[in-house]
Amino acid sequence: MNKLLKLATLTAAISVFSGQANAQPAEVGGSFNTSLQSIDRFNPASFQVTDIKRVVAKAVARDIAVNEQSWIKQLNSFNKLNLAQATLSSDASMLGAQASRLTRQLKGLTEHNQQVYQLRLADSAMLAAWQQGQSPLVAFAPKGEDTEWVHVEAFDQYGEVHLLDAQQMPKRPVLIVELDKQIVHREGIAVMQKTFQQHSGLALAKTENKWSNTAEAPASASISTSVINRIRLSDDKEPWISGAAEVYAVVNGVNPSRDEPALDVVDLPYLDHDGQDYTPNQILIHWERYRWQAADVLFMEHDDNTNYQELASTFLNIVTQAMRLIPDPNVQGYAIIPQLTNELIKAMPSHWFSNDDDYVDVFYTLFENRRYTNLMGASNNAKMTLSPLTIEPR
């Protein structure tokens, strides 16, 4: 089966199961194998990652009776398991591979054989009940804003739907089908970094250097940076099914050598739980990249439906257009940087502030060679201690 046919097959399966999202349990027990044999028009824009997860969850649930002992052993150490390592039936395994390829396409990731879906036990305490014979359900996170979730759909081994309380951790063991965030987030950040770097290189090649007095320092010069000493996100009481966050920072400023915006993306892979202090000592800003020794920092959280290529391109387009509307950036100085950042935030669709995509917080007008202790972001959701660090050449 060629790639397009496989993707079309998955699309058909998604349309079959997604159409039954509000059906009663007795109505959802149709033939899974039959749906896999359906061929529908390939139209990835018509569904989201949540739709794909629903299909995968139902397929995995049908494997419970045969494979649960293998899963118990595999989950015993880490409470999560990439689908590529999970023992699955041939149908579920094929569907998982198809789902992974389509999801990579939807998210603008590289073509790769590495599986992007995983199984995670909702709570480690559930393993004991499962080992004692209580059969698990297989769930997935719903669409929409998490504060408005009432129920979470979960499938049992017979393909029937159970509605779980979205805010209360269930007592019965629950496996969650979700994106393997470590893989997706790492690859997505790399895509954004590449997009920003390509833009920077193109602009450098096409733009006359009007700022020769601020030309890049020689390679032997010291490197001026700012380092995150401590960072904390407020407790927003996310539902039990959401799991750990995956946060990254977009540093926004103006190029020191030309009238172009400068964007960097910095991965914060450790920042996975709210209400907890982290002390990474991670470099956040390289100051040689920013005019006026000033920059803004926008914190974002990974989203299942984010297309990283489109997101990076959108960010670039927004700040580039905003920059072009400023007649003489050097007259206003660093005051223009928050203007660019505000244009980014204003341009975000309203659903970016819900569970469909997460704006976390923004820090305006950070300066080089300044220490900021317990600085709160503009939205009071992030608190950060930032200190200067000069890296000397050998």
Write the layout of secondary structure elements.
Blueprint (H helix, E strand, L loop, with lengths): L2 H16 L13 H6 L11 H13 L2 H12 L4 E3 L7 H17 L10 E5 L4 H6 L5 E3 L11 E5 L5 E5 L8 E6 L1 H26 L16 E11 L13 E8 L6 E8 L8 E2 L3 E5 L7 E8 L6 H17 L4 H4 L3 H12 L5 E2 L2 E11 L4 E5 L5 E10 L3
Parallel strand pairs: 3-6
Antiparallel strand pairs: 1-2, 2-6, 3-4, 4-5, 7-10, 7-11, 7-16, 8-9, 8-12, 12-14, 13-14, 15-16
Helix pairs in contact: 1-3, 3-5, 7-8, 8-10
Could you please describe the fold and organization of this structure?
With 394 residues, this protein is α+β, with helices and mostly antiparallel strands. The protein folds into two domains: 3-179, no CATH class; 182-391, no CATH class. Helices cover 33% and strands 25% of the residues. The protein contains ten helices and 16 strands. It has helices at residues 3-18, 32-37, 49-61, 64-75, 90-106, 126-131, 181-206, 308-324, 329-332, 336-347; strands spanning 80-82, 117-121, 137-139, 151-155, 161-165, 174-179, 223-233, 247-254, 261-268, 277-278, 282-286, 294-301, 353-354, 357-367, 372-376, 382-391. A hairpin with a 5-residue loop joins β15 and β16 (382-391). The longest helix has 26 residues, at 181-206. The N and C termini lie far apart (56 Å).
What best-fitting shape do the alpha-carbon axes yield? elongated
Helicity, in percent? 25-40%
Mean pLDDT level: 79
Number of strands: 16
Count of DSSP helices?
Answer: 10
Beta-strand portion reads: 15-25%
Distance between the termini: 56 Å
Spatial strand sequence of the major β-sheet: 1-2-6-3-4-5
Low-confidence stretches: 1-9, 14-46, 202-217, 353-357
Organism: Pseudoalteromonas obscura
Signal peptide: 1-23
Protein name: DUF3103 family protein
Keywords: Signal
